[in-house]
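Reopening this one. Same input as before:
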Amino acid sequence: MTAGEGTVRLRPPNNTLDPRAVGWWRAQWLLLTAAPVVVLAVLGALIAPARFWLLLPAGVLAVLGVGCAVLLPAWWFRTHRWEVTDEAVYVRTGVFRQEWRIAPMSRIQTVDTVRGPLEQLYRLATVTVTTASAKGAVRIEGLDHETAAGLAERLTRITQDTPGDAT
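Same output, byte for byte:
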């Protein structure tokens, strides 16, 4: 591509996720934490000789899990960004190790929208953009379900109008 042909460059994406993503991430974290805590607590209640050694880690896990559920999702929300232009899909994720991904329109192969049960509860969706990259698909999680549907439609339209990359 020459400079006049719309060079794709690394730049910060403009859009934030839907604010409900914070609640969705918190719910995921709490469910993930609850499973081992409940198992340890039930075992601690049933096995008297090991009660202390089962309830102590259950308590520690519960405190850590709740702490992470309160702090991490708000932090993730501040760092996750996305944007779609006529040239590319831009996504930035990560807190300690940030990852910036660009998927040029000419490299997009499929666009999928997924809504798991918890996402449906929060009226959210994930858009997955599959490219010819060995790095894998570009995922935009935590979008309002209507925004995700519109985005998938827009990406499909743009990629149909974009000639494929010959490289």
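So the earlier flakiness isn't reproducible anymore. For the record, Strands lie at 81-84, 88-93, 99-104, 108-114, 124-131, 138-144.
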